Every structure is written in structure tokens, then in C-alpha cells.
Amino acid sequence: MGSFSPIHLLVLAIVAILLLGGGRFSNLMGDVAKGVKNFKKGMAEEDEPAKPSKRIEAQSRAEPAFDREGDRVRDDR
């Protein structure tokens, strides 16, 4: 009790076909088949080589504007 036998599944399939209609059911199954086919095709294709990401180049180390005594080292004006 509580499990579906093949007879139960057959009755459910017949009711589904009657409610949905034969054409709609076959269209639905066709769409599922196309989806599976496209999925397999996508899995079979080789991935394109990964393009290197554009990275921001680090700037060189900034020179201090003042030395330890407080004298101006560079003039940015």
C-alpha cells in the first residue's frame, strides 16, 4: 500500500493524455527532447580558451612629497 504499481502509472498516463490532448502532449515531449539534445550538444562542444582578464597594472611606488625632517622632496605644482 502506498506505492505505485505499473497499472497506476498507466492510468495516470491515460488521464494526462485525455486532459492535455494527444497533440499538446506530443508537442511537450518534443520540446523536452529538443532541450536534451541542445544540452548534450553544449556539453560536447569544446570550451573556448579563456581570455585573460584585463587587470589594472599596479603603478610604481609613490615617492614621498616630504622627507623625515619635513622638507619638500618634490614639487607637484
UniProtKB/TrEMBL annotation:
UniProt biased composition (Basic and acidic residues): 49-77
UniProt-annotated stretches for the region Disordered: 43-77
Role this protein plays: Part of the twin-arginine translocation (Tat) system that transports large folded proteins containing a characteristic twin-arginine motif in their signal peptide across membranes. TatA could form the protein-conducting channel of the Tat system.
GO cellular component: TAT protein transport complex
Gene: tatA
Protein name, per record: Sec-independent protein translocase protein TatA
InterPro entries: TatA/B/E, TatA/E
Stored Pfam families: TatA_B_E
Membrane topology: Single-pass membrane protein
PANTHER family xrefs: SEC-INDEPENDENT PROTEIN TRANSLOCASE PROTEIN TATA
Keyword entries, A-Z: Cell inner membrane, Cell membrane, Membrane, Protein transport, Translocation, Transmembrane, Transmembrane helix, Transport
Molecular function per GO: protein transmembrane transporter activity
Protein's organism: Sphingomonas metalli
Gene Ontology biological-process annotations: protein transport by the Tat complex
Subcellular location per the Swiss-Prot or TrEMBL entry: Cell membrane
Record-stated family: Belongs to the TatA/E family.
Assembly, per entry: The Tat system comprises two distinct complexes: a TatABC complex, containing multiple copies of TatA, TatB and TatC subunits, and a separate TatA complex, containing only TatA subunits. Substrates initially bind to the TatABC complex, which probably triggers association of the separate TatA complex to form the active translocon.
Keyword Ribosomal protein: no
Keyword field contains Transport: yes
Lineage, uppermost ranks: Bacteria, Pseudomonadati, Pseudomonadota, Alphaproteobacteria, Sphingomonadales
